[in-house]
Design goal:
Blueprint (H helix, E strand, L loop, with lengths): L3 H35 L7 H16 L12 H27 L17 H12 L1
Helix pairs in contact: 1-2, 1-3
């Protein structure tokens, strides 16, 4: 079986990687949104704002770097996102494991399958909440 510290490390890396992917995917939209807000909507639409950002780059130095303009400020975002998501994800998983307890796992650490029917689960939920 996997040691507890290795499991925590894997959880932390998974959370950090998810945060990094999120930052990479959201950064262009975030840049366009912020630029649109700073211009108080003078661009007309979000699409025209995106075109303006891409046009600034092509005026500054050619067409090969157009898309990179949308990723300005990504490095600081990644530097903050990776540790934040790493801690959030791993602490969330550790809290779930702690609250569920060991009696909800079998010898290999996998969750036991519950065979309750939906009405039985609701019944037990009602009684556990008081």
């Amino acid at each position: 079986t996997m040691s507890s510290s290795a499991s925590h490390t894997i959880l932390a890396c998974a959370g950090g990687t998810a945060g990094a992917i999120e930052a990479i995917l959201v950064q262009p939209l975030e840049l366009i949104k912020v630029r649109f807000q700073l211009n108080h909507g003078h661009n007309g639409s979000i699409i025209s704002c995106a075109r303006e950002i891409l046009a600034e780059e092509s005026a500054a130095g050619g067409t090969t770097m157009k898309v990179s303009r949308l990723f300005r400020g990504l490095l600081p975002e990644l530097c903050g996102m990776f540790p934040t998501r790493s801690v959030m994800y791993s602490s969330n998983e550790m809290a779930k494991r702690l609250l569920l307890g060991k009696n909800n796992s079998n010898r290999n650490g996998h969750k036991k399958r519950e065979t309750k029917k939906p009405h039985q689960s609701l019944y037990s939920l009602e009684h556990s909440l008081g």
